[in-house]
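Exercise 7. Given the components listed, write out the predicted structure of the assembled complex. Treat all entries as one system.
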Amino acid sequence: MNYTISDLPDYFKQYKKSIKNPKKFWDKIADENFIWYQRWTKVVDFDMEEANIKWFKNAKLNITKNCLDRHLAERAEKTAIIWEPNNPDENARHISYRELYEETNKMANVLAELGVSKGDRVCIYLPMIPELAISMLACAKMGAVHSVIFAGFSATAVESRVNDCGAKIIITSDGSFRGNKSVDLKGIIDEAVEKCPTVKNVLVVKRTGSEVVMKPERDLWLSDLTEKASANFITKIMDAEDPLFILYTSGSTGKPKGMLHTCAGYMVYTAYTFKNVFNYKENDIYWCTADIGWITGHSYILYGPLLNGATTVIFEGIPTYPEPDRFWEVIEKHKVTQFYTAPTAIRSLAKESHEWVEKHDLSSLRVIGSVGEPINDEAWHWYNDNVGHKKCPIVDTWWQTETGGIMISPIPFVTPTKPTYATLPLPGIQPVLMDENRIEIMGNQVDGNLCIRFPWPGIARTIWGDHQRYKETYFTTFPGKYFTGDGALRDEVGYYRITGRVDDIIIVSGHNLGTAPIEDSINLHPAVAESAIVGYPHDIKGNALYGFVILKETGEERNKENLRKEINQLITETIGPIAKLDKIQFVSGLPKTRSGKIMRRILRKIAEGDFSNFGDTSTLLNPEIVDEIKDERL
Ligand code: 7RM
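Answer.
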């Protein structure tokens, strides 16, 4: 990747160029940094009203040629992946580019033998083990579309995703290790697959050695197949706009959205942003602590680093096992140069005794990053002082599953950082702030709804199977622009600060949760008549969930504590433990407008404990309910 930014004037110069002539800008980057089987006939073709976007039209490529094959000449023995297991007593594994290439080929052969071909979907439900990366690369190599499902999701959540994309194969493991716990992943898949008619086979990786039931014909041990598989595989030639992967993200209403990313644009964008945002240099050891099951892991554990020939750390465990210094220990052990994590992790580790971070030599670090939610001032300073020792720039990177890669972020050693600010857009990115009347807010020291004006190569192209929903969700609120769903303010020098979601998505510990699916799952409880969920500020998680629940009138007295447990159990079963409620208040009614809409704004204020001003309540059908809810607040 030859395209770097040297200093602030250079940034402004490149930024201006990229906006004046985006086609030329991306054409040059794509041209000079990747292996193509065939060039594009047009850099970009788009219609923002209809939400049709195509980059590098008619180009032919395969992302794995760029992630793996191209490095074999100079970096075959270089470590591609350092795998750090959950238990520090187990040895870390160093997987070279050559090994990764061979393992990917074997896995691609296994999939091909099972009848997977170009365009077929493969769901991957694995812990953070090398096979997760290998499975994704194998799919990409053979042209299958991977859809990784975070291995913390419940059987019901897995089932709906597998059925939505119609996967032929699921790759899972006998279990996963998380701290001193282990999770029966295969059991969850067994339960899900019963209701997934498209699934022909379940491939099982041996990880925990725990006993699992293998259903004859359907279930296969992966190692039995890879042992016999050839280490050569003929790479599938893909079109620029062929699907690369589907990744599900919460919607504010309805079922999760299968965001579809395509081959060429995603490749160009993740490679370019990785190089520049992390100041990546050849011998760096880069570590992103996200799970590969989220977009951060796709773009900045796997694809971005490998496209740059980097060494990327894959960590199986959790920050507090065996002790709360695991992150710091791993940084010291592998001499990590770039460390990328989430504010929720920073806040929870900042609460631990100082000695945990002090006792480790973190001097290998050069750049530290934050992603997933706004980083508050206190967490920013703790990170800066205790991890970066005031010499590592913090890259507060704002982006989304939908954007494919980082959009707004400081460039380290170029953009002066400012606590809680994601600062400036990357070259090629045109943020705009819009008011309620759909008018662009010009000038500085303003805030509004964050939109993006022009397409960039990494943008998701559609929602799998529902282009109409894609169009409505992202391109109709502010016609002609991509609407992020976030609010932002622009300060006096043009720096952006993301203030949070403006829709019904709540970010809890960096996980996006839609209110509607959680409410749907609570409403499954036979005693529940109706419910409403809001977020409220939480010291560590950023936001926590507060549920207001109306019970059915049965005349019977119910044990409230048991009900709370049952409701959270239901949520765990239908979505996963990440969506559990911190507080559940039973109420006799919910504040509703005459058109029947719940006024979440009021519930949010009550949950926050801010009773000062509920705003205009004149449109409420039942204003008296507000006092009752307020008086009984938990
Ligand atoms: C990468 C990722 C997207 C949502 C997004 C924001 C929030 C992400 C930041 C942030 C403030 C940040 N993808 N968000 N990064 N808010 N500052 N640096 O998280 O699809 O899972 O979430 O996350 O609300 O819209 S995601």
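Discussion: The mean pLDDT is 95. Residues 175 and 208 are 5 Å apart (CA to CA).
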